[in-house]
Amino acid sequence: MDIIKSVLVWLIGVSYMAILFPLTFLVWLLVFPFDRDRVIIHLILVYQSFLLCKLMPIWKIKTEGREKAEKGTTYVIISNHQSILDTLMINSLRYRFRWVSKIENVKVPFLGWYLRMAGYITVNRGNEESKAAMLEKSQRFLERGISVTLFPEGTRSADKEIGFFKRGAFQLALKANVSILPVLIDGTGDILPKHGLIFSSGHHIFIKVLDPVHPQSFSNDTPEELALRLSSLLAMELKKLRTGRTDT
Q1: What is the CATH number of domain 2-247?
Q2: From CA 227, how far away is CA 215, in angstroms rounded?
């Protein structure tokens, strides 16, 4: 049964992108000369993600704390990473930001085209020069008042727990002197696990935006200390979330 549902979900997802991509591309061509920060294209993509999340019949999504991101404030947005669905979930929050994506995604049909059109940042995780360039580009966006979003684990968790946080996101927050906005996602790994193609249904996805962590509270930390502090925070919140769901 899951195989039949998965075929249906993939058909809906691919058809959705195939139908909307030409329209998005046309808008991109029209606004390219004056939309320097790709605000319009990003706005289109996040609302497309929001709509797709609502359309999919195999999950229910509960979002909490979206209002904690103050309008007009620039953040380094971080999230744990359970599944390729997490990108869709973060987009559905409808914040203004730039993704940092692994360079391999550029080669994926539709996804790679959207990455280029929206001017998102790519990084070759095995190349130190690419990492340095990513931090430099991210810094420039933050200076222009555009938030940057990263998965500090760098890859999807195989066991759906919070993994080791790499230092890049926290190095960026320290250097740019901007707040960190932690986002917790749970449930996507149950629906589509790492390296999986078969969707399971009847699951709940929880997206919880935590309180921003402001620079005055971490200005004396090293990137490594800050990474550990935030990974511990998300691990604690994940445990509380799952305990609360069990209790109810």
Answers
A1: 3.40.1130
A2: 14
